[in-house]
Amino acid sequence: MKNMFRSWRVVLVAVVLCFTYERASAAWAPLTPSAKFSVLTCSPGADLYSLFGHSAFRLQDTIDGEPIDVVFNYGVFDAFDDGFYVKFALGKLDYKLIAEHYEYFIQTYASEGRGVWEQELLLTPLQKQRLFDLLRSNVQKENSVYRYDFFYDNCSSRIRDMVIRATASEPTDSLGFRFVALDSLMKLNTIEFNSPCKRGTTYRQAIQKYLDYQPWSDFGIDLALGLPCDRVIGEYGFMFLPDSLMSELEMAKLDGSPLCAAPVELLPQRLELSANVFTSPFVIIVFWLLLHTWLTYRRRDAKGMLIHEGILLSLVSLLSLLIVFLWFFTDHNATHGNWNLLWAGPLNLVIILFIRFHSVVKICSLLNLIALGIMILAFAWLPQSLNVATIPFAFMLIITNYRLYRNARNIEH
Hints:
There is one protein chain. By secondary structure, the protein is an alpha+beta fold. The chain folds into two domains: 8-197 and 233-267, no CATH class; 277-412, no CATH class. Helix content is 45%, strand content 13%. A hairpin with a 2-residue loop joins strand 8 and strand 9 (257-258).
């Protein structure tokens, strides 16, 4: 899924192509009987922005005697927007559909060593024309922009939705081209999806196999995403991931016949993803825990806050503020209900600010110890799946909060 980290050169070319095709689309003639629609699935890349792969439509035909080979790509954004990073942080990032030359599209993935597979859609001429009309309308400037949502409205789920609309029991033009609820589409759906993906899987579990290659990204995502990420994926929901979409389309039936031909490899996957276990967050934080324990033991009877304790509590305070910000002050639905506040709670910031008030420190550190104890004891049963690297983090906070509580209590007495 192409997103905010896509190179500026790539975005510039894509935007130019977008404007070119927007002008040309009005003049496109109806498809010929030999028109071929297919779904392209691109393998994961090495960077976070490309880690989950990508999906797009491909159209091959001859219109007005001229051969065309066009990719309809829902994965483009405007990186030249002055408020781009602010919008991304606030969950207000808009993506758009563009039409670009197939050769340009495929060369991008070839240069990255990523594989590309193609599945021809076995549609009737009428269904192909309906899909073409939908995409031609969608690529127009007034319809092309949509509010990106990683789980529910992205480059992959849009492919699913457009195929459903093209084969629907009745025209779907009235639905528009902004967000269309999946429930509304299912009422018109004529495709039999056989859901080869494992039932009972949560969104967090579904993306984990990709994040295994980037443990630090995995740690950051697990910190940022709350309870919605642990919801069980409903029917047709797996298709938010490109390779799951490919599997679903391969198994799908339309009027008792296969919806798609078998996938054909257009580009071999040369990029091999791997992760260094020894630099993973869990290993690094365990070493930090050992150092923290040793430093605390050396000065266990010291009054006030130790330097390494201040560093730890400051970092955790920043994390708590970030979690609260993402939860309450952005449009990111997946960041709500974040149980990471059990261990990275805002009381750590209160302790830093009121370290000289021993009664405040005593109460806050005691409350922190209770929350941390609940987290450790109920780790496997919490509604939200927390990253395993939070466990050594929690033990560091237990050591620090216990020392601060004990000292504050002794001073008061």
